[in-house]
Amino acid sequence: MSQVNAIGLNSAKSEDIVKSLNTLLSSYQIQYMNARGFHWNIKGRNFFELHVKFEEIYNLLLLKVDEIAERILTLDGAPLHAFSDYLEISKIKEAKNISDGEAAVENLLAGYSTLINMQREILEQAGDAQDEGTASLMGDYITEQEKLVWMLKAYLN
Ligand SMILES: [Fe+2]
What local confidence, expressed as pLDDT, does residue 1 receive? Predict the structure, then answer.
């Protein structure tokens, strides 16, 4: 007999999902800080437009940071909360001293593509564990970010 947790999910499978969610959380924290850095450091003709857009983007990222951490707690896990851990396991790298608008948008695009791929994997993992809560969260993020990727790519064109 496999063990189930307080919300009726297989404990071992939930632990695996927690592990993946902590990697996702770490990657979000770096993508968030990168977007925040672009908001501050951007220069040039598109300053006003991009400064505002990057703020919109980092606010969306920050909302998810909290939702992911609280999903981890819901699954009986512990969310990572130290930047030393985030840097170690994030799949997104820190971006430093980028002030060019196109370079910043390209960097964010690459980060979103990483996040979307990770979320697709977690969606599958959650499906296998009948973890509808995590699956629907991932589905919502993927839908929102696929659209954002289209818009960022259109900007670069
Ligand atoms: Fe600001």
Answer: 55
Phi, psi angles (nearest 5°) of residue 22: -70, -35
> Taking the domain 11-156, which CATH number applies?
1.20.1260.10
Quick one: pLDDT at residue 105? 98
CA of 51 to the centre of ligand 1 (A): 8
Calculate the dihedral angle through the C-alpha atoms of 29, 30, 35, 37, rounding to the nearest 10 degrees.
110
Q: Each residue of 70-92: pLDDT tens digit? A: 999 999 999 999 999 999 999 99
Measured in Å, residue 146 CA sits from the centre of ligand 1 at 25
CA of 116 from ligand 1 middle (Å) equals 26
Output the pTM of the full model: 0.96
Handedness of CA 74, 112, 128, 90 (dihedral sign): negative
**CB–CB of 108/57 below 8 Å?**
yes
Domain locations along the chain: 11-156
pLDDT at 126: 98
Question: Which residues are 10's β-sheet partners?
Answer: 4
* C-alpha to C-alpha distance for 8 and 108, rounded to whole angstroms: 37
